[in-house]
Amino acid sequence: MDAALVAAAIAAPILLAAALVIATFLIARHAQALAPPAGRFIEVDRARLHYVDRGEGSVVVLVHGLGGNLRNFNLLIDKLASSCRVVAVDRPGSGYSTMRSGEQPTLREQAAIIAGFIQKLELNRPLLVGHSFGGALSLALALDHRQSVRALVLISGLSQVEQVPPPVFKSLEIHSATLRWVIAWTLMAPLGKLAHRATLEQVFTPEPVPENFDVDSGGTLGLRPESFIAASKDMIRVADDLAVMTPLYASLTLPVSVIFGREDPILDYRAHGERLAAVVPNATLHLIDGAHMIPITAADRVADLIRQAAA
Fold it and tell me: What's the Cα-to-Cα distance from 54 to each of 61, 84, 120, 123, 285, rounded to whole Å?
C-alpha cells in the first residue's frame, strides 16, 4: 500500500477524534455560558456544593433528579420563597457541584453529603423535597440520617428497583469506565446536541417542553461530559442501594408526601408512588394532572402541596 495512503488511514481517525473532543469542549463551554452558576459554593466533606438560598421562614431543601441541576426548581423557588426559606442544591457531580476526588459518590454517599450540607448551613431539620432520582436520595437520607430532616416531599420519586431503565435514559447504561469516558468526550455532546430536543420531548411527554428550558431550567448543562459521566454512574449503581433500602421503608416514622403525575411515562406512579405509600406509616399519596416534570409543568399545584407539608 502506498505510504501516503497508510499515513492518511492512520491520521483520519486521529483527526476525527480530535475534532470531536474540540466540539465537545465548545458545546460544554457554550452550555455553561447559557446557564452559569446561580448561587454560592460551600465545602462539605469531599464535595464543593453549589446552592441557592432564598426567602425566610420554614426551611425547604430541594434536591433534583438524574442529569438535572438546581435550576430545574426555578419556578418552585420563585413560588415558595415568599413564605419559606428555600435552599436548592446541585447534587454531587451535577450542575456545578463537584467532588474533590473526581469520583462520583453512590446514592447513599450523596445522601450523607447532603446531610452534612444541612448540618453545615444549620438548617435545623428542614423539609426535604426530592424530584425523581432526588426522591431516592431523600429516602436514603431519611433512613441513614434520621435526625437531619423532619419530613419528606417526593415528587415523581424513584423508590423501587427498576429492572430496565426508562428508554430515555438507555444511553446512560454504560458499565465500562473507559468506554463511558471516551463517549463522554467524543460522541455524547455532538450527538446529544443533535438529539437534544427529541430527548427533552421524551422527558416531558405528553406535555410540551417549556420555552427557554435550556436556559431557565439549566437543561443545556446536561450536554457537558462531566454531567453525562455522573448521570451514567448514578443510574447504573442506584439499584444496589435501592435493593437495601426498600425493606427499610416501613421503619420510617416521619411524614412523607408522595406527589405523582398520573401520566408519568418515566416512573409509574403505581410502582413508585402507591407501593411506597402503602408501606410508609405516615405517607400520603397525591396524584395530580401531569407527567414526570411536574415541578415545572404543574409548579403551582406542587408548590401548594409543599407549603402544606412545610406547615
Answer: 11, 8, 17, 13, 28
Integer CA distances (angstroms), 95 to 8, 192, 220, in order = 40, 17, 10
Phi/psi of residue 148, nearest 5 degrees: -85, -25
Q: Supply 288's cell numbers.
A: 395530580
Q: How many CB atoms lie within 10 A of CB 33?
A: 9
Cα separation, 143 vs 108, whole angstroms: 10
Report the alpha-carbon distance of residue 311 to residue 58 in Å, rounded.
8
Q: Which cell is 49 given?
A: 456544593
Whole-number Å distance between alpha carbons of 83 and 3:
73
What's the total number of domains in the chain? 1
Scanning the structure block, which residue is given the C-alpha cell 429492572?
A: 163
CA 241 to chain centre: 16
- Checking if the pLDDT of 10 tops 70, the result is no
* pTM of the predicted model as reported, rounded to 2 decimal places: 0.92
Q: DSSP states of 89-123 as a string?
A: EPPTTSTT-EETT-PPP-HHHHHHHHHHHHHHTT-
Domain that holds residue 250: 3-310
Q: What is the pLDDT of residues 237-281, one digit of tens each?
A: 999 999 999 999 999 999 999 999 999 999 999 999 999 999 999
CATH code, domain with 168: 3.40.50.1820
How far apart, in Å, are the Cα atoms of 68 and each of 176, 200, 227, 243, 309?
Answer: 22, 12, 9, 23, 24
Give the number of other CB atoms < 10 A from CB of residue 19: 12
Q: Which of 64, 33, 65 is nearest to 51 (CA)?
A: 64
